[in-house]
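Tokens for chain A. Residues wanted.
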């Protein structure tokens, strides 16, 4: 009976859902710079930034990034250190490295998708975008629809949530089976005549109305065909697979500082967290190391996707900086010229007054 009802709802209510979501969007959407353009480069930048970042936080970074790199050619021509510096604070730095590689790849190939795509078929545009480092089906679909108004779904976390509730779907959306199932639902629901408007509307609806907790179901414009609302399962959806246990790591940083405010920095080169970013000299151990009493110290815990980092930063005032392999000497006033990890930035915010 559930399958029959679900199929019936999909077929008969599709146009009605398109209309209601579009009306809601026109009345409630946020004015954001990437919605005021059809430039695929700027839409691509916004989509990558917003993958792991909230809109309110990402907006400032987006403006700063596109001001420095206004087109794909300027991004391709930059060196990686500078790209990482403009990404500093957003985290998940592989996103920035992939964007840089993708820009260089596209420029080498002529960058038609980012310059003149009028002669390209929808499939060619989508496949070209999908071939870029760091671009999956969601990002390729988002750029295709928002830039070119092509009928591809854009499945971000907000859309997964709306679809899971609309169809009362208990399949974990972040599994192989779940991704396939939700993409099928998105394909079926997509407004193929107005994909740009529909994708914008359903994403914004998930972000502002069909929220993770305490959604306003009483004033929901599509409540009448929401199966989760009918079955009282809204707060249980969407379902995700069990989280991987976090691995604990213990990082002991020393901030060497001379009377004339010179410090040491080290660039991470290993294929590990924060590759190519700068930090203070580090000793990693199986526990946080003791420091002498009275030494300015701060302890921080920093959570990554699969790791829990326990970090201890302490300031060591010295007359001369020690010779530590693979470190560089800089004046503290120049530290903003280097791309730093978010953990290091947090420590600096807390410790700057003590230097």
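Reply:
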């Amino acid at each position: 009976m559930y399958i029959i009802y679900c199929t019936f709802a999909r077929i008969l209510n599709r146009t009605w859902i398109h209309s209601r979501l579009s009306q809601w969007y026109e009345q409630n959407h946020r004015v954001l710079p990437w919605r005021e353009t059809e430039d695929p480069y700027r839409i691509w930048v916004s989509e990558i930034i917003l993958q792991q970042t909230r809109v309110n936080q990402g907006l400032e970074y987006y403006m700063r990034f596109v001001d420095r790199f206004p087109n794909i050619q300027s991004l391709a021509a930059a060196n990686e250190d500078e790209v990482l510096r403009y990404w500093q604070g957003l985290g998940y730095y592989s996103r920035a490295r992939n964007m840089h590689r993708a820009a260089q790849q596209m420029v080498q190939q002529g960058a038609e998708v980012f310059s003149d795509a009028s002669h390209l078929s929808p499939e060619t545009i989508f496949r070209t975008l999908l071939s870029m480092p760091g671009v999956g089906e969601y990002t390729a679909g988002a750029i295709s629809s928002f830039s070119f108004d092509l009928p591809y779904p854009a499945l971000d976390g907000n859309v997964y949530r709306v679809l899971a509730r609309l169809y009362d779907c208990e399949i974990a959306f972040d599994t192989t089976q779940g991704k396939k199932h939700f993409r099928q639902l998105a394909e079926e629901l997509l407004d193929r005549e107005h994909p740009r408007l529909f994708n914008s509307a359903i994403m914004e609806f998930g972000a502002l109305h069909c929220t993770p907790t305490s959604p306003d179901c009483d004033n929901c414009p599509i409540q009448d065909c929401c199966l989760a609302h009918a079955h009282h399962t809204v707060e249980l959806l969407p379902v995700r697979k069990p989280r991987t246990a976090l691995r604990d790591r213990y990082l002991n940083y020393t901030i060497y500082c001379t009377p004339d405010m010179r410090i040491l920095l080290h660039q991470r080169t290993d294929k590990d967290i924060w590759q190519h970013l700068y930090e203070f000299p580090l000793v990693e151990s199986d526990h946080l190391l003791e420091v002498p009493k009275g030494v300015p110290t701060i302890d921080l815990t920093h959570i990554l996707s699969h790791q829990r980092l326990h970090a201890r930063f302490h300031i060591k005032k010295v007359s001369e900086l020690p010779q530590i392999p693979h470190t560089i000497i800089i004046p503290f006033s120049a530290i903003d010229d280097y791309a730093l990890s978010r953990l290091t930035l947090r420590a600096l915010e807390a410790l700057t007054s003590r230097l």
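The chain is about 45% helix and 15% strand. The CA atoms of residues 296 and 354 lie 7 Å apart.
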